[in-house]
């Protein structure tokens, strides 16, 4: 029961935030199902998605909370930020107002997560280049000034979607490796292998790399 | 389904409780609908059954006084279905999720919740059967329960 796709070394918690209609749920769906939803209703409160990925030979389960962008939900969706190892902040490249609100999303993300949380900025709907309202250079500059990773992506074509989620995981994994992220801190957003099969000792051995062949399957 | 199993932390629950009580104290006892909704939503995510019950009671009051605004109705129906599922009152939970699907038949989030409620209900029924029946029946139910849990993954 402990083999196969359910076998992973870490769990990372992500949150996806940003104005309503920027494509948060579509990005999540594209990442977990590899499909685009053309007609997607506004999220009611929060949605959840999960996928197992691989970083440096380690299987990692991403647990992703997709929050509703509508203002009336915002007070409560904030309670999902805590303990996020990764935060994806999304704006829509065809709607300037969604870009103008970034600093408020960023402030929330900074205040409510921990200093090691990896924050990734995504300009979504890059397929709609003809209707572009925010240039790449401008957003890139904003990202650099604030120390954020940045890509433009499209939940419709899938461009850069995989990359954004994986890059975030890579950066989190790096801070585990270099010791800056304390796994024992309650709010690191990272858990070592769950104990569903009760094999606590075994799992920590695996994570320490005593079983290098486990990733070659 | 995580929306049915995640818990709110005490500090957030308290924050919305305080906000609710403040509004009662400062506005002739009539808090803002939004404040009530926020508090109710947090209550449905509590570990305490009594909180969840209080949460769905607030949501039912909001729903009863919500005549025209479909967007808000949708929110109430969704979290009523969540709350009643957490209380394991599946009949009422299904009633609410069905009303939501009547408003928005194509809503994927609502469809997923309906599925999750169904599978939760089956799991509980099998658990009940396993406890009630002895011997073979219980063993059979346990196998079925195991299969149901595996399928849910
Ligand atoms: N052309 C194009 N349309 C997109 C893209 N991503 C999302 N959309 C459309 O934009 C609309 C909103 O997408 P959602 O994913 O529901 O937006 P959201 O950010 O989750 O919105 P809330 O849940 O209200 O916060 C939908 O109609 C999508 O089909 C994209 O990359 N390209
Ligand atoms: Mg959404």
TrEMBL record, chain A:
<protein>
    <recommendedName>
        <fullName>Ras-related protein Rab-14</fullName>
        <ecNumber>3.6.5.2</ecNumber>
    </recommendedName>
</protein>
<keyword id="KW-0968">Cytoplasmic vesicle</keyword>
<dbReference type="GO" id="GO:0055037">
    <property type="term" value="C:recycling endosome"/>
</dbReference>
<keyword id="KW-0007">Acetylation</keyword>
<dbReference type="GO" id="GO:0015031">
    <property type="term" value="P:protein transport"/>
</dbReference>
<dbReference type="GO" id="GO:0005525">
    <property type="term" value="F:GTP binding"/>
</dbReference>
<dbReference type="InterPro" id="IPR030702">
    <property type="entry name" value="Rab14"/>
</dbReference>
<keyword id="KW-0547">Nucleotide-binding</keyword>
<keyword id="KW-0472">Membrane</keyword>
<keyword id="KW-0342">GTP-binding</keyword>
<dbReference type="GO" id="GO:0005829">
    <property type="term" value="C:cytosol"/>
</dbReference>
<keyword id="KW-0967">Endosome</keyword>
<keyword id="KW-0333">Golgi apparatus</keyword>
<dbReference type="InterPro" id="IPR005225">
    <property type="entry name" value="Small_GTP-bd"/>
</dbReference>
<keyword id="KW-0636">Prenylation</keyword>
<feature type="compositionally biased region" description="Polar residues">
    <location>
        <begin position="198"/>
        <end position="217"/>
    </location>
</feature>
<keyword id="KW-0449">Lipoprotein</keyword>
<dbReference type="InterPro" id="IPR050209">
    <property type="entry name" value="Rab_GTPases_membrane_traffic"/>
</dbReference>
<keyword id="KW-0813">Transport</keyword>
<dbReference type="GO" id="GO:0032456">
    <property type="term" value="P:endocytic recycling"/>
</dbReference>
<dbReference type="GO" id="GO:0090382">
    <property type="term" value="P:phagosome maturation"/>
</dbReference>
<comment type="similarity">
    <text>Belongs to the small GTPase superfamily. Rab family.</text>
</comment>
From TrEMBL, chain B:
<dbReference type="Pfam" id="PF14853">
    <property type="entry name" value="Fis1_TPR_C"/>
</dbReference>
<dbReference type="InterPro" id="IPR011990">
    <property type="entry name" value="TPR-like_helical_dom_sf"/>
</dbReference>
<dbReference type="Pfam" id="PF14852">
    <property type="entry name" value="Fis1_TPR_N"/>
</dbReference>
<keyword id="KW-0472">Membrane</keyword>
<dbReference type="GO" id="GO:0005778">
    <property type="term" value="C:peroxisomal membrane"/>
</dbReference>
<feature type="transmembrane region" description="Helical">
    <location>
        <begin position="128"/>
        <end position="150"/>
    </location>
</feature>
<dbReference type="GO" id="GO:0005741">
    <property type="term" value="C:mitochondrial outer membrane"/>
</dbReference>
<keyword id="KW-1000">Mitochondrion outer membrane</keyword>
<dbReference type="InterPro" id="IPR028058">
    <property type="entry name" value="Fis1_TPR_N"/>
</dbReference>
<dbReference type="GO" id="GO:0000422">
    <property type="term" value="P:autophagy of mitochondrion"/>
</dbReference>
<dbReference type="GO" id="GO:0000266">
    <property type="term" value="P:mitochondrial fission"/>
</dbReference>
<dbReference type="GO" id="GO:0016559">
    <property type="term" value="P:peroxisome fission"/>
</dbReference>
<keyword id="KW-0812">Transmembrane</keyword>
<keyword id="KW-1133">Transmembrane helix</keyword>
<dbReference type="GO" id="GO:0043653">
    <property type="term" value="P:mitochondrial fragmentation involved in apoptotic process"/>
</dbReference>
<protein>
    <recommendedName>
        <fullName>Mitochondrial fission 1 protein</fullName>
    </recommendedName>
</protein>
<dbReference type="InterPro" id="IPR028061">
    <property type="entry name" value="Fis1_TPR_C"/>
</dbReference>
<comment type="similarity">
    <text>Belongs to the FIS1 family.</text>
</comment>
<comment type="function">
    <text>Involved in the fragmentation of the mitochondrial network and its perinuclear clustering.</text>
</comment>
<dbReference type="InterPro" id="IPR033745">
    <property type="entry name" value="Fis1_cytosol"/>
</dbReference>
<dbReference type="InterPro" id="IPR016543">
    <property type="entry name" value="Fis1"/>
</dbReference>
<keyword id="KW-0496">Mitochondrion</keyword>
